[in-house]
Structure formats: C-alpha cells, structure tokens
Amino acid sequence: MDTHLYAIYADDCARAGNHQEEIHTLQTLANKNLDYVAGWLRLATLLIETEQLQQALVTMKEFTTLHPQYQEGHWVFKQLLKKCPKSDLFSLTS
Q: Which domains, and CATH codes, for the chain?
C-alpha cells in the first residue's frame, strides 16, 4: 500500500510541476522498496530530465548493484558515464 501511495503522490507532484518534491518522493519510494524497479527507473529518468546527471549516475549505480541482471539498467548507467563530466566521475568513485 505504501508503494502505491508514494507513486500517487509522485504523480501529483509531477502534474503540479514540483519536480524536486517528486524526486524526493521517488527516492523515498526506491529506498523503502528496493525491488520496485519502475520507481528506480522513473527516478533516474526524472533526474536526467532535470539535468541532475551526477545524481542520476549515483542512482543508476545503486540500481545496477541491486539488480545486476537488469541489462537495461547497465546500458543507462554506461550512457550516463559518457555524459557526465570527468570531475563528476571522480567524486563518484572516491
């Protein structure tokens, strides 16, 4: 039930244009339900759309660690690695 309520609230935030609250809600949703693949991917997509590439990269790294068999997640992670400035990559690995 919590997953459903968080997803509805995230939808409401999206409709209202409140992307930061939507991101916060999706982060909470993903952390509370590590197996909710759709929530993780929606969060990463929103982070990319709002040009928060570093946070999207961190999110996808965590996602691929939790779901190593989900090949599309690895592909998105590799694409983000190509887009992020080298200085951002250094902070991710240190």
A: 2-93 (1.25.40.10)
